[in-house]
Amino acid sequence: MIRNVILSIVFFLGFVRFLTGHASGQKILKYYGNFYMHNTVEYYDFNDYQGAANGKDKGERLLMCIPLRNAAPVLPLMFSHLENLTYPHHLIDIAFMVSDTTDNTKDGLYTHLERIQGQSKNAFNEIMIFEKDFGQLVGQGVDDRHGVHVQGIRRKVMGRARNWLLSAALRPYHTWVYWRDADIETAPATIIEDLMKHDQDVIVPNVWRPLPEWLGGEQPYDLNSWQETEPALELAKTLDEDEVIVEGYAEYPTWRPHLAYLRAPEGNPDDLLELDGIGGVSILARAKVFRHGANFPGFALWNHAETEGFGKMCRRMGFRVAGLIHYTVWHQYEPSEDDLKKIKEMEELERLKALGNANTNN
Known about the structure:
By secondary structure, the chain is an alpha/beta fold. It has a single domain (46-137, 147-335), classed as Spore Coat Polysaccharide Biosynthesis Protein SpsA, Chain A, CATH 3.90.550. Helix content is 35%, strand content 19%. The strands form two sheets. Strands 3, 4, 5, 6, 7, 8, 9, 10, 11 and 12 form a ten-stranded mixed sheet that branches. It has a two-stranded antiparallel sheet with strand order 1-2. A hairpin with a 7-residue loop joins β8 and β9 (218-220). α3 packs parallel to α4 (105-117). The radius of gyration is 26 Å and the shape is globular. One of its GO terms (cellular component) is mannan polymerase complex.
């Protein structure tokens, strides 16, 4: 009798082992609560993926989304920053969207990723590269991208690119989504944790850019992070529904308080400002914000598109949207055509001055 019981137990354990694994070690069954399920069945309880302020300590998975267009020149600096991030790399999945590109951005990506992913120390959990052209007709020059007449077109296309990237890359186990531009000059290596600790649904830093000393040394860069005003709402009523309001241009007098202009160099980096519109240089958002249906409008939503439309949509949906007034990320300086003309003039003056000094000495 006892022998039969022992044989039955051994047989049962062997049967369970057979079901839960085979020669290659791959599991056939997984245990969920009181049930065994085949390994083709996945179970996720979204109550476990809400996004905590101490997500790093809780081991929460983060999806980083980086749109790329003709980005080959900035890839070395971008990857240098990514390697230095202090959020555990094994918790980070990175998704790139390469779009409307005419340079060797993809080749550069492969080269850098082969090096980084081959290192156990700095390797990220997963890398995804997507490619799709959206018919972006606006050039990549600073004057092309920031001209008032092309801003609406450009922002709508960028909104669609972001949505394609997010919809392809977001996994059920991602708790946070971090959007980051490739052309950031400097940013704290702790930026993910620094933003996350404020427990906001959507949060952005302040974004400035360095300038040559003859242009003032520095300048607010991202004017897309702002609070709504009555003059702006009244202005929107006078516009065609498909027109996009562009901040920082005389054509659109919104009188909105901009996060960028409130910065003080010695200010408290933890000071928060509630926002309506946000810029896209560096955004941390809970994944549940997107699961609720928020996205980056590829059309004029309340006369806003892309990240500004996303900010207003999130506020309308009841999410908390904020910016850090004095916590600053620095964007790369790109000289405009006027800047380049000024530089040439200054170089010519220096040349003539040097020539004059040489003639005087002779």
